[in-house]
């Protein structure tokens, strides 16, 4: 239900279907990154890890929205689709990397179980680290490529 609500909000924001589909596809794929990190570390799927997955969804949406919003700006300046997406990726590369690395390094002490009470939040940190690691790549590569493919098909 929440994915449907997010989709509707993104359709109203961007006034097209290609933007929301590209953003939501990256969101679903980054969920697999969170699950893979939990699986690799043999951490249980619980409320804490679900909260981490929700945090990752927010980060991925923000990255996708900012990336494709930059694309709209470059398209409004008269650039072609591929060039606008390339320039948007160039513009958003550093902020996406900085946000992802700050999140990963900030969650690392929790993921390693350092400090008192860290075991309670360890699944959250592992899910966030896995999801953000995957989303960093998806936000910069998969979302723009999928967006270009959808736009060329007329969505």
Report what the structure shows:
The protein has 155 residues and is mainly alpha-helical. It has a domain at 48-155: Up-down Bundle (Multidrug efflux transporter AcrB transmembrane fold). The protein is 86% helix and 0% strand. The chain is built from five helices and no strands. Helix 1 runs antiparallel to helix 2, helix 3 packs parallel to helix 5 (118-152) and helix 4 packs antiparallel against helix 5. The longest helix has 35 residues, at 118-152. It is elongated and about 55 Å long. The two termini are 23 Å apart. The model has no long low-confidence stretch (mean pLDDT 87).
The averaged pLDDT comes out at: 87
**CATH homologous superfamily title of the domain at 48-155:** Multidrug efflux transporter AcrB transmembrane domain
What proportion of the residues is helical, as a percent range?
A: over 70%
CATH fold assignment of the domain at 48-155: Multidrug efflux transporter AcrB transmembrane fold
CATH architecture of the domain at 48-155: Up-down Bundle
Helix and strand pattern: HHHHH
- State the end-to-end CA separation: 23 Å
- Principal-axes geometry comes out as elongated
Report the major sheet: none
> What is the tally of beta strands?
0
**Class by helix and strand content?**
mainly alpha
Strand content: under 5%
Features:
mainly alpha; Multidrug efflux transporter AcrB transmembrane fold; elongated; single chain; about 160 residues
Write the layout of secondary structure elements.
Layout lengths: L1 H13 L3 H23 L6 H30 L4 H32 L5 H35 L3
Helix pairs in contact: 1-2, 2-3, 2-5, 3-4, 3-5, 4-5
